[in-house]
Task: structure prediction
Amino acid sequence: MPRIILMIIDSVGIGEMPDAEKFGDLGANTFGNIYKAYPDMKINYLKKLGISKIHGAEYIQYDGNVIGSYGKMMETSNGKDTTTGHWEIAGLHLEQSFKTYPNGFPEHIIEEFENRTGRKVLFNKPASGTVILEELGEVHMKTGMPIVYTSADSVFQIAAHEDVIPLDELYSMCQIAREILMGEDQVARIIARPFIGKAGHFERTPNRRDFSISPYERTILDELKDNNYDVIAIGKIVDIYNGQGITEDVHTISNMDGVDQTLTFMKQSNNGLIFTNLVDFDAKYGHRRNVEGYKDAIEDFDARIPELIDAMNSYDILIITADHGNDPTFKGTDHTREMVPLLVYSDQFKQNVDLGTRKTFADIAATIAEYFKVDNPGNGISILNEVMED
Result:
């Protein structure tokens, strides 16, 4: 049975977009700047899939055999956040970026949130999630006041210690925030950020949950589901699409758990799309500007690629890409406006095919649509005619 395994290595951009200056991101290159900091990085299998042959990635040294097809994709939508990137991958173009709150949320939003949850809030400004735990984690534990903060993305984030505000209550608070932040005040995601530990040693737990809005139009996920294909969401995929177009889902606790879950589903009898997000690159290393940790995470993923290939059947397609950048060598702590790599492998495909620079992430949706013979919801162009054996 034919399947596509779509792996999102979250935030692993491969160089600035042409309009990066508008976003303050000139010079950003997540993969490139990490590689230049660690030129001995062990990425043998990414190289084998063709990452060193992507235009602009000549700094990656590799003279071996390339078994995959390779290129990079530009983002047509106006943004550099998780939702925008994933929705474009699924076939949508967002001309208007999601609303952000660079000065914190206005009084009427906070007042309603406090009234409905019965808890006053701390902070209400943009911040790095890990830094804010160091600054306010102890105050939160003493007062029971949740830490509300945002970022350059369209998000309302609530941090709470699991011993102070139980998970069920935290998720309920997020649902209340989701109801409030609609219409003119709408944000893309409400994010639960539970943590544990003591002062000086706070750490986030894997119990994060995202409360998103639904895509405004049909995506390739809807087309597959309505045509009786499986759409298996691994990691935060189900949250990003608010469950729309998903037939089965599982959350994960780490990148490696995400790979494990993907392999588990690959070994089962299913027919359609296995769609995985590996969020640690972004959440643990990009936002925290941890270059070495990001490098290690790339190496860890690279080492698992042979397992993914070995688990493929003759009609499977493996696609590895990203949703935006988050250059850990760059200023600030936010995402970076970048192009993303496109690495494709299948037994039925030609090897060493240059896919060039694609005009939109939606080329993935177009490829999925053509492969499964369903309607293409977007304006992308399928790569199948470029890679299929004659």
